[in-house]
């Protein structure tokens, strides 16, 4: 069982370019999340989805969009990347909402130049 | 707005020592509290989850306590080992249904052989 996989592992992206970070889980969890982790700011929730077909905004949603077409996949899209989006991005999932234990992927390190 | 604080930010101890990591939160209306471990360059691994109705949870050499009324949790690590070296984060889940975990910035633990 792989748990949660994320792709790519790392990426250098020119400002203004569009980028989609991929996240797939094989645990059949209903809820999925995207966080960004920045030094001095900790982990912050970008978007979440409590079940396939629904999404919600987290603490720092601006500049990001998500979709949840099925249970397993939860891609995060940067429509037009900016340098302030340089960060490490983590995808996570839980059986239901955030009151359940969350499982994290290995992360994507994104640098926007 | 919920705020989570972890003190100290960094801790260095000799192998074999028992130690306590602290987590405090400003809004006591939480559903549960989770402790995570993060190794350098890796994702988060869930260690313990304490429901708001519980006082403590144990897993091996780890014991987490929760005092909801005072807004505090501690993670006790017995007989520390070099392999325990990592960053430990706590996160709280709000009492209302939703998906907004609030994380502390973590305590970076180094266990010296």
Percent of residues in helices of chain B: under 10%
Pick out the low-confidence regions of chain A: none
Specify the biggest β-sheet of chain B.
6 strands, mixed
End-to-end CA span of chain B: 41 Å
What is the overall number of helices of chain A? 0
Which series of helices and strands of chain B comes N to C?
Answer: EEEEEEEEEEE
Oligomer: heterodimer
Describe the structure.
The complex is a heterodimer of chains A (113) and B (113). With 113 residues, chain A is an all-beta fold. Chain A has strands at residues 4-7, 10-13, 19-25, 31-38, 42-49, 56-57, 64-66, 76-78, 87-94, 102-104, 108-112. In chain A, the strands form 2 sheets. In chain A, strands 2, 4, 5, 6, 9, 10 and 11 form a 7-stranded mixed β-sheet that branches. In chain A, a hairpin with a 3-residue loop joins strand 4 and strand 5 (42-49). Chain A is globular. Chain A starts with a strand and ends with a strand. The model of chain A has no long low-confidence stretch (mean pLDDT 94). Chain B is mainly β and 113 residues long. Chain B has no helices and 11 strands. Chain B has strands spanning 4-7, 10-14, 19-25, 30-38, 44-51, 56-59, 62-67, 72-77, 86-94, 102-103, 107-112. In chain B, the strands form 2 sheets. In chain B, strands 2, 4, 5, 9, 10 and 11 form a 6-stranded mixed β-sheet that branches. In chain B, strands 1-3-8-7-6 form a 5-stranded antiparallel β-sheet, with no helix packed on it. The radius of gyration of chain B is 14 Å and the shape is globular. The mean pLDDT of chain B is 92. Chain A binds chain B through residues 4, 31, 33, 40-45, 48, 50, 56, 58-59, 90, 92, 97-99, 101-107, and chain B through 31-32, 34, 36, 41-46, 49, 89, 91, 93-94, 97-101, 103-106.
Task: Looking at this protein, list some descriptive labels.
heterodimer; A: 113 residues; mainly beta; 7-stranded mixed beta sheet; 4-stranded antiparallel beta sheet; 11 strands; 0% helix; 49% strand; B: mainly beta
